[in-house]
Amino acid sequence: MGKNQIDAFLSHLATNARVAAATQRQALNAIVFLYRHVLDQPVEDLLEPVKAKRHSRPPVVMTQTEALRVFENMQGTHLLMAKILYGGGLRLMECIRLRVQDFDFEPNLVYVRDGKGRKDRVTLLPKSLCFKPP
Hints:
Layout: H1 3-15, H2 21-38, H3 64-72, H4 76-88, H5 92-96, E1 103-104, E2 109-112, E3 121-124
Antiparallel strand pairs: 1-2, 2-3
């Protein structure tokens, strides 16, 4: 297979098979790997297939009113966790792994340890959970 056949195959994936852009890139990388490391043939770097379109969808976001209505129907531990998730911007597993010593009520901070990417970070404690001195 030469440059024209590879371009035609990758273009076919984008136009006729309507695969995602990531799928087309994965197919291209597989072909390049095959040629370089298995067949020991140089692959022309000038491959120009028709690019698959990336579909971007706007994020679905709850309004503040909707979030408050959800909170009204919760109680106990689930309400506490939901407020921490929503107000502090935590991921579910980050919230589940929280310990008492991760909360600093003086400056209203939450220490997230070993979060996504195995990184530590600090976020704000939601206002509804802040303690006010008497």
